[in-house]
Design goal:
single chain, about 210 residues, about 25% strand, globular
Length: about 210
């Protein structure tokens, strides 16, 4: 994914993604951004970093960017060319962090690889360490795609990963899995004052707007 922009301040609305298997061929992120728990007041910006280049081509063209207002060549080089760690594809957080605010890490993977719990957990830990965000105790969303899986396979993968997350999550639910079936085109992020929730649109974008 050569057109990578690792840092951007975003508000309510949608932004395009470069459609790629690295992000389940999704074409956009839709931001539902609010200032209160009743979801009535918008304009609560978040900071987004796209790190998908780590799982794409290593030949990153830092001169080309779909979002020229926030291109950051130094960050691109550091994330995509210099770092030895494997990273999640997407990270975002509240623009203003306080004790209650949380961040979020999103990983995309083919469903047939969900059994690789150690690899997925390592992606989460490496991303936290590389971004130095341990204090944020970020939510961890795994978006899997490809052929549907049996319920038993999903249950086993979920239980194993949730167990591995216990040292970080404690009694709180911070780990989630989402299936992006064929035809899904958008990652939907709902953000209130302190929390994030992530889902996908299982239908075409022209039916959303």
């Amino acid at each position: 994914m050569p057109d990578i922009c690792p840092e951007k301040i975003v508000e309510a609305g949608s932004m395009p993604l470069l459609s790629s298997p690295n992000v389940a061929n999704l074409k956009a992120i839709v931001w539902n951004v609010y200032n209160d728990e009743n979801k009535t007041v918008e304009n609560n910006p978040v900071i987004l970093r796209l790190l998908a280049c780590k799982t794409g081509t290593r030949q990153v063209d830092t001169t080309v960017c779909s979002y020229p207002d926030h291109v950051n060549k130094a960050a691109i080089k550091k994330a995509c060319q210099d770092s030895k760690s494997d990273l999640a594809q997407i990270y975002f957080r509240h623009k203003i962090m306080d004790l209650k605010a949380r961040s979020c890490i999103v990983v995309f993977i083919k469903g047939i690889y969900l059994h690789k719990e150690e690899t997925l957990y390592k992606l989460y830990r490496d991303t936290i360490d590389w971004l130095e965000i341990a204090d944020e105790r970020p939510y961890f969303y795994i978006v899997f795609y490809g052929d549907p899986l049996f319920d038993l396979q999903l249950t086993k993968a979920y239980k194993n990963l949730k167990w591995k997350m216990k040292p970080i999550s404690g009694k709180e639910d911070i780990f989630f899995m989402i299936y992006a079936k064929k035809g899904t085109e958008a990652l939907d992020v709902t953000h209130t004052t302190t929390k994030f929730s992530v889902s996908v649109y299982p239908y075409k974008l022209d039916k959303v707007y």
